[in-house]
From TrEMBL:
Residues annotated as domain Band: 23-181
Family in the record: Belongs to the band 7/mec-2 family.
Region (Disordered): 309-382
Name of the protein described by the UniProt record: Regulator of protease activity HflC, stomatin/prohibitin superfamily
Keywords: Hydrolase, Membrane, Protease, Transmembrane, Transmembrane helix
Membrane topology of the entry: Single-pass membrane protein
Domain of life the protein comes from: Bacteria
Compositionally biased intervals (Low complexity): 336-354
Gene3D superfamilies in the record: Band 7 domain
Gene Ontology biological-process entries: proteolysis
The keyword Membrane belongs to this UniProt entry's keyword annotation: yes
Record PROSITE patterns: BAND_7
Length: 382
């Protein structure tokens, strides 16, 4: 019986010792702080790690988290300056820097931060219209952070950041804003389209202008070159005609023609006169028989052609064999000189062929006095 009592007493003593040890040794986690009270009054703040307290006298009342915390508050209704209600969601980043103040200066610092945030939002947004509220998030954030820092400093809390998650206007206002935004986009699209068409028209006009200028310049140069080519061709033709006239006159002087040669040429031209389908009637001169008999010996003298040619043959200087083309535009005077030279050569050839004034020309034709000298006698009937 005595042994059982001793064992019970030993068990009670061991249990008391364990309880005392548990009350004496307190382990505080990292980034935590323990608030110790002695008989209901603040005694000390336990840091992280192993700590010894007086059992049954000291008590760890609160364990404060010293890490930065994030709290998202539910949407709060705020009225803007233009009497529109918007729903604003906020997020607060804060950190406890004084555990004692956070424990004894405020009962619930999270609820206090939420209420200060709501009232500050109403003050800030109440001075803005809806357009400013939607576009001034940074201004609202800065205002909230300044007010919260000032209000929570005595609570041992430091507000790091304040963020606006969303600003939701009423559905009717949202629909109106969407229509306005759609109209604004349509307006900008129309403006951009008009500017594009204007720019396209300007570029097209500029292209047409440059094309017209280039075409006009091309036509001008083409006309200039064509005029130069026509001018040089005319010069070449004039020089060629002059050369041909000089050659013909030179050949006439070299051949010394007489009446027999001219009669022979006259007979050669007769078939050509009769050529053609339209020549239905061919009038044969009465002198054809005489021409055939003497080939000009019995024909009356032709004006300007002597019966016999005496004297030496005089050569006519025909000038250069190759025609000279004016190379410059202002050489019309040279063309005139060439034409004058051709006319001088022709005059010289005529003066050489007729050294003296010819006698009065005799009427060539029939010797019948009843026939008019200017009238061609009719052809004999076949």
């Amino acid at each position: 019986m005595d042994g059982v009592i001793v064992l019970v007493l030993l068990g009670l003593i061991f249990l008391f010792i364990v309880t005392v040890m548990a009350k004496t040794v307190r382990i505080v986690p990292q980034a935590r702080a323990g608030i110790v009270e002695r008989f209901g009054k603040y005694k000390q703040t336990l840091p992280a790690g192993l700590n010894i307290v007086v059992p049954f006298i000291d008590k760890v009342r609160y364990l404060i988290d010293l890490r930065e915390q994030v709290v998202s508050f539910p949407p709060s209704s705020v009225i803007t300056e233009d009497n529109l209600t918007v729903e604003i969601d906020t997020v607060i980043y804060f950190q406890v820097i004084d555990p004692v103040a956070a424990t004894y200066e405020i009962a619930n610092y999270i609820q206090a931060v939420e209420q200060i945030t709501m009232t500050t939002l109403r003050n800030i947004v109440g001075g803005m219209d809806l357009e400013q509220t939607l576009t001034s998030r940074e201004t609202i954030n800065s205002g909230l952070r300044g007010v919260l820092d000032e209000a929570t400093g005595k609570w041992g809390i430091r507000v790091g950041r304040v963020e606006i998650k969303s600003i939701d206007p009423p559905p009717s206002i949202k629909d109106t804003m969407e229509k306005q935004m759609r109209a604004d986009r349509d307006k900008r699209a129309a403006i951009l389209t008009a500017e594009g068409q204007r720019q396209s028209a300007i570029l097209t006009a500029q292209g047409q202008k440059e094309s017209a200028i280039l075409s006009a310049q091309g036509d001008r140069e083409s006309q200039i070159l064509r005029a130069q080519a026509d001018r040089e061709a005319a010069i070449l033709r004039a020089q060629g005609e002059g050369q041909a006239i000089q050659t013909v006159f030179q050949a006439i002087h070299d051949g010394r023609p007489d009446q027999s040669l001219l009669a022979y040429q006259y007979l050669q031209m007769m078939p050509k006169i009769a050529e053609g389908d339209a020549n239905k009637v061919w009038i044969v001169p009465s002198e054809i028989g005489k021409a055939l008999e003497g080939l000009g010996s019995t024909m009356n003298s032709l004006q300007g052609i002597p019966q016999e040619v005496d004297g030496p043959v005089k050569r006519v200087d025909m000038g250069p064999t190759q025609p000279q083309v004016a190379e410059a535009r202002g050489e019309d005077a040279e063309v005139s000189k060439a034409n004058a030279a051709v006319e001088a050569a022709i005059a010289e050839a005529q003066s050489a062929a007729n050294p003296r004034k010819p006698a009065e020309p005799e009427q060539v034709g029939s010797t019948d006095p009843s026939i008019d000298p200017g009238e061609v006698p009719p052809a004999p009937a076949p």
